[in-house]
């Protein structure tokens, strides 16, 4: 009985750790994920690890081949274009539904989310890009605050999945564009358009924001 209680908890824990490490690039795109190496790295048994990997395969963050085992999912221009196209479509829909349902409470939450993001440094190193976990949390909170008034858990769930799929590409862009791109100004323009109720401008600015990231992610060097 005790083992049955512990196993699901261990699976969730290793899933969350491995998922975060895949998104952060600890296991680079395309790298093999040998079970023995993962078991040693995470100090975990084979059963919960395999269950966690299976969940990550279903999410598209890992792949599995019967002969070759598990590997971190590769990145590609085609996948990036697919993510971009669907993010723009779904988030535009969420914005449209949200602005039709806007409330003072939502506006206050969005204002707070933008304020927190604007006060947080993009990188922990001023001279070169080094991911700031606090900025990442505030960035995520801001983007979902933009969409949250839509009132659809299903739509928000799809948007969250695409946000996570785009994360690895955004990290590539951040390293290349640090100090050459003012993301705060881009976020401010989107925020102001949404607060003004200008749906078409907000949709265009959001799409352009993602397109810039996609273009930088696809650059070489």
From TrEMBL:
Keywords: DNA-binding, Transcription, Transcription regulation. The keyword Methyltransferase does not apply. Gene3D superfamilies: GntR ligand-binding domain-like, Winged helix-like DNA-binding domain superfamily/Winged helix DNA-binding domain. Residues 8-75 form the HTH gntR-type domain. InterPro entries: GntR_C, TF_FadR/GntR_C, Tscrpt_reg_HTH_GntR, WH-like_DNA-bd_sf, WH_DNA-bd_sf. It holds the Pfam family GntR. The keyword Transmembrane does not apply. This is GntR family transcriptional regulator. It comes from Pigmentiphaga daeguensis. The lineage of its organism: Bacteria, Pseudomonadati, Pseudomonadota, Betaproteobacteria, Burkholderiales.
């Amino acid at each position: 009985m005790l083992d049955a209680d512990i196993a699901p908890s261990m699976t969730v824990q290793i899933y969350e750790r491995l998922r975060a490490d895949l998104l952060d690039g600890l296991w680079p795109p395309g790298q093999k994920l040998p079970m023995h190496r993962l078991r040693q790295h995470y100090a975990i048994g084979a059963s919960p690890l395999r269950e966690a990997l299976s969940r990550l395969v279903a999410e598209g963050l890992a792949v599995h081949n019967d002969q070759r085992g598990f590997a971190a999912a590769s990145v590609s221009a085609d996948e990036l274009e697919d993510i971009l196209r669907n993010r723009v479509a779904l988030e535009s829909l969420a914005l449209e539904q949200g602005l039709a349902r806007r409330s003072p409470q939502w506006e206050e939450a969005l204002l707070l989310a933008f304020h927190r993001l604007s006060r947080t440094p993009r990188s922990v190193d001023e001279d070169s890009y080094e991911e700031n976990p606090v900025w990442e949390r505030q960035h995520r909170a801001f983007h979902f605050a933009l969409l949250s008034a839509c009132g659809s858990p299903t739509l928000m769930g799809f948007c969250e999945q695409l946000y996570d799929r785009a994360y690895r590409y955004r990290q590539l862009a951040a390293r290349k564009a640090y100090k050459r791109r003012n993301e705060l100004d881009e976020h401010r323009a989107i925020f102001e358009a949404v607060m003004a109720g200008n749906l078409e401008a907000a949709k265009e600015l959001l799409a352009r924001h993602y397109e810039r990231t996609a273009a930088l992610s696809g650059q070489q060097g």
